[in-house]
Specification:
Layout (H helix, E strand, L loop, with lengths): L1 H11 L6 E3 L13 H10 L12 E3 L2 H6 L15 E6 L5 H10 L4 E6 L6 H4 L1 H19 L3
Parallel strand pairs: 3-4
Antiparallel strand pairs: 1-2
């Protein structure tokens, strides 16, 4: 983290921040480019979810902000509010969903969507429709006054 602290000091002195691409261009992919990166590229940099306002860049200094933020740290504090966690069966992020579920107290529910990857949950109708139905059921059950 010293490198991040040094970067913040450089920025404070008025120097330009170091900026890197968030996702590599396809031309830079190798046999080691993982499926998560490829699917993220497909969603964020191609027609599926690309935005003309998205620059595909991040500032090196922001890594320090991510290091200080760990959302799973306080899952148990959400209780006794109902927790619904939905993740794709093939999502590389499923392990975080499972960890959050384990840390959460009751009432809690984990729904693993068969065949779905992380990004497929964003816009693939065969995964989105049943997930929206589950959300509607969850909200009806837990948010409507009895």
């Amino acid at each position: 983290m010293k490198a991040v602290a040094d970067e913040w000091s450089r920025i404070e002195k008025g120097e330009k921040p170091k900026v890197f691409p968030l996702l590599p261009d396809k031309k830079d992919w190798t046999d080691k480019t993982d499926d998560f990166t490829k699917e993220a590229f497909s969603y964020y940099r191609e027609k599926r979810g690309a935005s003309p306002n998205a620059s595909n860049k991040f500032h090196f200094a922001t890594l320090g902000l991510f290091a200080g933020y760990y959302p799973l740290e306080h899952m148990e504090a959400i209780s006794p509010r109902p927790v619904l966690i939905i993740a794709g069966e093939k999502a590389q992020t499923l392990r975080f969903s499972k960890e959050a579920y384990e840390k959460a107290k009751e009432p809690k529910e984990l729904v693993v969507v068969p065949g779905a990857s992380h990004f497929a949950m964003y816009d693939k109708e065969e995964f989105v429709a049943p997930t929206v139905a589950k959300l509607a059921d969850f909200f009806r059950k837990n948010l409507i006054s009895k």
